[in-house]
Specification:
mainly alpha
């Protein structure tokens, strides 16, 4: 069950990273990239624990 949740979160993270790459301006891409890098691991852990 936990492995299934982890895979779902991984897929969501991959989608958000694709959105970062698709960002139109360098500033937007940089800003989103920092957020993903800083909070991605913590958010993934929080989502798994919450469910």
């Amino acid at each position: 069950e936990l492995a299934k949740e982890a895979k779902i979160v991984e897929a969501e993270l991959a989608q958000s990273q694709m959105a970062v790459r698709a960002a139109t301006t360098d500033g937007e891409r940089q800003q989103r990239g920092v957020v993903v890098n800083m909070s991605g691991r913590r958010a993934r852990h929080a989502q798994i624990v919450a469910k």
